[in-house]
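Cross-posted from the bioinformatics board.
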Amino acid sequence: MRLATAAMLLLATTAAACGDSKDDGEKASAPKAPATIPQLTNDPLTLSFIWFEWPPAQALEAFANAEYKKVRPNATIKVNTVPNANWHDAMFTQFAAHKTDFDIAILDSQHIGEAVTNGNILDITDFVKNNIDVTAYNPYLLAAYGQFPQAETGKRDENASLYGLPLLGDTWTMIYRKDLIGDKPPQTWDEMISTAEKCQADNPGVSGLAFHQANGSDAAAVTYNTVNGVYGGNLWDAKNRKIEGVLNDAAGQEAMDVLVNKMKPLTAKGSGNWFIDEVNAAVAQGKACIAFNWIAASGGLLDPKQSTLGTSREQILDKLGFATLPSQKTNLVPLGGMGMHVSAYSSAANQAEALNFMKWFEQADIQKKWAAAGGVPARTDALASPEFLNAGPFNQVYADSVPRMRDMWNVPEYARLVDIENTNVNAALNGAKKPKDALDDIAKEQQSVLDSSNRKGGGGL
Amino acid sequence: MSDRGLAVVFTSPALLLLLAMSVFPLLWALYLSFTDYSATRGGPAEFVGFGNYTAILTSEQVHLRALTTLIYVVGAVTLQTVLGFGIAYLISRRTRGRGALTTMFLVPMMLSPVVVGLFWRFMLDAQFGVVNSMLGSLGLGQVEWLTRQRTALLSLIVVDTWQWTPFIMLIALAGLSAVPKYLYEAASIDRASEWFRFRTITLPLVWPLLLIAVMFRAIEAFRLFDLVYILTNGGPGVSTETMSFHIYKVAFLGFNTGTASAYGILMVLVVIVLTQLYLRYLNKLKEG
């Protein structure tokens, strides 16, 4: 009894203490970065990034420490990485604590809404006006990696605020076996499927297709979104915040049918949980005729140490081709890649250094060097430069894909929306749900997330 | 200083640590469970009464995860109990190599669940896994262990069984070692069969201890998260999402901290209520 009384007393004290939250109920919004870079420190300083574990993360750290140190010898760049599946959580749990061990968060374009609404990253609109030549970029790339509210596909709203700058552009490339299907890549989605079908029949032990199907990160969702775009579907009506009836319209249904009933049978058995690494492994081991993967993750395919396709890069390139995605009713491709965003909880000295780094990084000559080091730049001049185009066989694919890109939703509810889509598409691909049911469930559940954004209690189920 | 004062001085660091690390978070979570609060969105926690609890208890999504968790708990714990007791019984009848055998069987229990999950993920891979390779060499077809609805949950049960059967085995072995020898000697004199001895001596004496082991395992299995995260990530679809995994998603995908707190509190309540009922049954058994 005495214990219960003590517990109640403690609970009441806790509630009283915590009820007096430091937030006074005002809706959080991103704090503004200064328009000009403040005085930089001359003391030794470590500028920390957070990203997920993949080759571009190591490339960025090596590149920045080699090049940025030339202008800021006292600064050391550290790119902290987490597994891809933990990437969002690792950043946003620190944001929740209002204390981050990183100065620059490398956010997926879809994370921006959540970070801005919560006031986690700096509003750099004025800084960009004073320090960045915005005309040097394809407007949509600048918008996708920094603008909020979300950009309309292919456009940038010049009146909208910017919260980030491009770090690494990305899209899907079609990887195909030239020795099995010929030098000329399929031009339409239907042709791609029939080519893969024939290749699989002609080459026992080799699957026709390899693509992302996992229910983690955004794997299966991006796959469906890509097919949806190619078949003329829409993810949502952004203006009216409508998903139900838009995503699962006739075009959406056709896309789901193509994905589950035509593409899935051409994949390897047990590939229902494949993501970036597994698709790369299948290609490197000669187990797939045609594969789809992010360009920024494709560099390893040309490494003879990791491939059974040849003992040199040239030998591998004799067998592997990289092409832009085939088109069908439209020629849309998925927008990948990430931007740099300054943590609102970083120290003033580190925020100043972060802004200085971003200004330095976005210069034309640095962007070309970044391209040569294996990065995918966003500036138009860097994209057209020989440094970029000659750095990898898939870089021309990226340059050609830029005008065709379409992104997902970068609303604050993104993490929930993508989880709903991931799990349902994954269920359809693995026979746990009928394709039509899966798509209808996605539309219904996503709509309910958007509609319940302002409802009190019971959210997130 | 009096003895009482000394006792307070010596126990207070541990007590303070317990209060700070366990009691306070629990009470804080209890408070948040009655509010609409997000750890990332800021703003004060708005009181919503039992709104979160009502939403959880009436949610179809939660019912689905509860059913998955129940199937998993019943399947895994039953299998572990039968196997654990069986292995313990066989080991207890040996005189030579008992220690070495026991140690060998205990190895899986010593491993981190994440490590266990990772290497079973490789072993169960449909394309390159050793399990399918062995099945292939026996002339059997490939099985999609982790990507099909039926086999994914079964795989989780099998992996959990591989890791935790030794726990049941250890406790059963302790119980079996404690059975007085004279009972078996008396049964031998009466020419009792092996089955009769097992049914009337071994099982009744080990049963209460075994039930305690079952209770611990059931509580652990009820909270399963790590293996799901590594092996299937809740897939295919959400067919292997347990309640703990669902809480994680509620808490960290949308940062619905209030709802996640209520969900967690409800899970604790379920465990407490079921454990109480179970302990009453155990006490009755003891009295009987």
